[in-house]
Amino acid sequence: MLKVSIVGCGKIADSHVAQIQRIKGCEIVGVCDREPLMARQLYERFPVKRHFSDLRKLLNEAKPDVVHITTPPESHFDLAKLCLERGCNVYVEKPFTLCEAEARALIALANEKALRITAGHDDQFSHVARRMRALVQSGFLGTAPVHMESYYSYELGQAYARALLGDARHWVRRLPGKLLHNVISHGIARIAEFLTSDSPQVRAYGFTSPFLRSLGERDIVDELRVIISEEERTTAYFTFSSQMRPSLHQFRIYGDKNGLVLDQDQETLIRLRGARYKSYLETFVPPMTLAKQHIGNVATNLRRFLAMDFHMKSGMKHLIESFYRSILEGTPVPISYREIVLTARIMDTIFAQLDAQRQALGQMALDTVRAGPA
Amino acid sequence: MGNAVGDGFIIDKDDLILVTGATGFIGSRLVWNLLDRGFRNLRCFTRPSSGMAGLENLWGHRRAGRRVEVVTGNLLSPEDCARATENVAVIFHLAAGRGEKSFPDAFMNSVVATRNLLEASRRNQCLLRFVNVSSFTVYTNEKKPRWRLLDESCPVDNHPELRGEAYTFAKVKQEEIVIGYGAKFGIPYVIVRPGVVYGPGNESITGRVGVDTFGLFLHLGGSNVIPLTYVDNCADAIVLSGLKNGVDCEVFNVVDNELPSGREFLRLYKKNVRRFRSIYVPHCLSFLLCYLWERYASWSEGQLPPVFNRRRWHANWKKTYYSNEKLKKRLAWAQGVPTQEGLKRYFESCRNRGLNA
Questions:
Q1: ipTM of predicted complex
Q2: Range A46-81 burial, b when 16+ CB lie within 10 A, else e
């Protein structure tokens, strides 16, 4: 029986516990939060053996094989490091760490201790994402991807926006990339999975949306556009938006033969045929085949729902199961360490460029003020 | 100048009163109620993100020799709680994690926040009463000593985690922590449990009347009495519970007189606000649907969350009557705004909101 623990008993911990419960051959031996009441509420609602407010005590007494770190990102590195040092395998919620250097250090430590570590990029393990991966691996696209587009939207509900804006001490503000840091890794990791170079070029442009500006915010970037390219082979666009409607969580990948469109929210996968039909047939046949594919997606989703295999966090269950299997059976980790590091590196570059932009804009504004009216 | 202690109140009119959630739906009315009663030393605690609507005219009172301090902060911060509770004689604790769907978020904003406030009060040692504003939602509405009548003697849900409602779980746990601090540290408290608080500022239709699902309103209330309390009446009851002598450790339910049934409420709403399609679901059918949903949620390992279940049916849709006798007897509460007038103001506000939407 694999002994599992959770550190950090906030919102996402509920999803972890709910999915771990569904996996055979494991048990939750302890949950931990530095706020004892939070640890206790999780313990009271789920079949969990014990609750703690001190991670060291949990590690000593519950002796878990795996620790899930579901705390705010600032603490990921220190907690994961401690768990690895104590001989535990570690699942770290996204974003994996605050920077690439921390990601590298944790992976090196895991390797040194012959332990496993993974990042909580569970969207990449949903049913539809796995279908897409299988098609790509089967050569559906042709050769390597030519271009990718990853859309990751985040609807800033008025209440959430006000809470974040009104609280100067909100932990999201302390992250190097602030709101972006906490959200974009899902969308970036999708691209990183299919990049072959370890040092792609990154060009980022970000700004604060008029919506946030109207609420008095100047510091938080909630609109981001990124171009990623590697040695004039594969390119990618990443779009993060809080204002775009419809709010998308989409991934498009094009090869030299065909393309694929994955919609995370609708759990649909559409195959785009590379070859064209002759003459007017191009205007009649593709719409029909697209309609057929959409109906096929409905049927697939319905079938999975009826088979009770269509949970909201099914991707997380699959990721956790694969991770546990890698620990127990020595199979490869579900997310390659290269992909985790590359995701962190792209994010670091984006945040550095946004910082540089902000400083340049600040300098321009300062120069304008100094120059005075013409 | 009136002497508050002489009115049977536990504090004088110059004693400091703290109101958390002061800019909220009930909180803002409660502040005005205290000012109208002549209390001259108020501290309104609000989140930095809260709008100041409802309290914007306080400056007039300030000029009239009353001290109304607005303190912004976060109850999750022990330092902010210490600042808020300094020299306070009575706390009206209305701030809560309402509207949260996530259990941890609701719990944190209700229970952890309340614990911080109690802990800060304990250190200050000048608190005469802590008024914890709870809700009818804490009642299990089963095994009631007086059959269909729900009053303060009825049991609280001992497994709120099974109700599928984050708010219920948080409120039950919040009460537990208040009672625990009362027993352990002698903090004098009163628990107030309002029914459905309605009025301008809260234009939604309570789930006790029905649920809007996929564009069709499922009318579940039927002939059930809806435990309404108009916001001004509710604020008045909360104020009295915080001030009256001799009610420490008591619980008070707050409902108005002459309560309409779900069917009457829906008819009046459609007549006065807007027409929409609704379908009546008889009680036996709604119970069966809740039971089936609950079974499926369990069978499918949570593919559908257990948001409808038998516990929730008992709490919300079982035929029940309500009493405000204790409120009247112990606090001398009288309904200020008659139900008919309250509904009129509420429907008018709903219409205006619809026009402005």
A1: 0.92
A2: bebebbbbebeebbeebebbbbbbbbebebbbebbb
